[in-house]
Design brief:
The chain has 358 residues and is mainly beta. The protein is built from two helices and 28 strands.
């Protein structure tokens, strides 16, 4: 009891300290023309600058010039965020651990999305260490944060590699059983000109033979269905917009793609999980992960109401997210890969966004 109390007080002190923080911007880079800027607010990737086919630098993610524009009082977005404690949706916001039920915030069609109303994307991370090409941030999440149990210490390490990749590694520990599922929520537009180009013409490959369908509230049904013969089949690269408006119930529900694909990579983070190619810039991005799933979201709720960098208005389907993670609602699907983390265990997750041109 005493140990638990001390841990709770330590976490509370850390939370209070975080609430006094101001957003800072950190930049990491290599010698090959790649530069990434990250803020401690939400552990967000603010910019990723890589060379296009002509060697010209392009910023390939959406975001804001003013770091305070990431505050929910100004813009309630997930742009670039390190999502936690649980990325994606949890049905009815309910989880059960060791026979005890916890009611989480219900912030999306009656479900808990991305950790709740004030998930980690709306909280400060602490700087642990920084070098020229690497940055490590830490999030101390107290027991009861968004009603999740357990005091959690989570770390995100961003590294820009010599071959123009952004390597992201997550680690977390807890003093009580809890669910953890972290991801990066960058909105990519590989043209570097989101005011001119949607992602419809971008060619997408997903290394997955199956996906998890959803209902009209975007909640997974618990099924795993084959992609073959459906608009969900990206095993051979095709334009994102080729089938996005097809007469297919899943696309009607999501207004496009907003689904989890069941990867065929078997946790091997040396095998491409996805690849995105932009004909306009010649930039190609390969995604690697040790996670079992990838959520692909085609910017269906970008509606021109958010103004970002350089005064650019972000319009419908002018960005795409590729979020590596556990499957949605895994806490309530014991047959799926588990997101439960217990004391003495370390949660880990690995994602790489590797850039090149062709």
């Amino acid at each position: 009891m005493k140990k638990s109390l001390i841990a709770s007080l330590a976490a509370l002190i850390a939370i209070v300290a975080c609430n006094r923080q101001v957003p800072e911007l950190y930049t990491i880079k290599n010698d090959s023309g790649m530069e990434v800027s990250i803020t401690n607010y939400g552990g967000r990737v603010v910019s990723i600058v890589v060379p296009d086919r002509n060697g010209e630098p392009r910023d390939v993610v959406l975001g804001f010039d003013d770091l305070k524009d990431y505050y929910p009082s100004r813009n309630e977005t997930d742009f670039g965020a390190s999502i936690g404690r649980y990325a994606n949706r949890i049905k009815d916001g309910k989880i059960t651990i060791e026979g005890k039920e916890y009611q989480l915030p219900r912030n999306n069609f009656g479900h808990c999305l991305h950790g709740g109303t004030r998930g980690w994307q709306y909280q400060f991370y602490n700087l642990v260490e920084k070098s020229g090409n690497s940055l490590k941030l830490e999030r101390i999440s107290a027991d009861g944060d968004q009603n999740f149990p357990g005091n959690v210490r989570a770390c995100v390490t961003f590294t820009v590699t010599d071959d123009n990749a952004l390597d992201i590694r997550y680690e977390a520990t807890t003093d009580a059983p809890t669910f953890i599922n972290m991801t990066n929520h960058s909105y990519f537009n590989l043209s570097g000109e989101p005011d001119k180009y949607s992602v419809a013409a971008d060619e997408l490959f997903i290394n997955a033979s199956a996906y998890t369908p959803v209902d009209s509230t975007f909640m997974t049904t618990g099924e795993i269905l084959p992609v073959e013969g459906t608009p969900m089949d990206f095993r051979v690269a095709k334009p994102v917009g080729q089938d996005i408006d097809a007469d297919f119930e899943q696309l009607h529900f999501a207004r496009g793609y907003d689904h989890n694909w069941v990867l065929d990579t078997d946790g091997d983070d040396t095998v491409p999980a996805a690849e995105l190619f932009c004909p306009a810039s010649g930039i190609v991005m390969k995604v690697y992960t040790d996670e079992p799933g990838i959520q692909v979201y085609s910017g269906n709720f970008l509606d021109g109401t958010v103004t970002g960098k350089g005064g650019i208005v972000y319009n419908f389907r002018h960005a795409i997210c590729l979020e590596t993670q556990k499957f949605p609602d895994s806490p309530n699907k014991p047959e799926w890969p588990s997101a439960l983390v217990k004391p003495g265990e370390t949660y880990t997750s690995h994602c790489v966004f590797a850039f090149g041109t062709k």
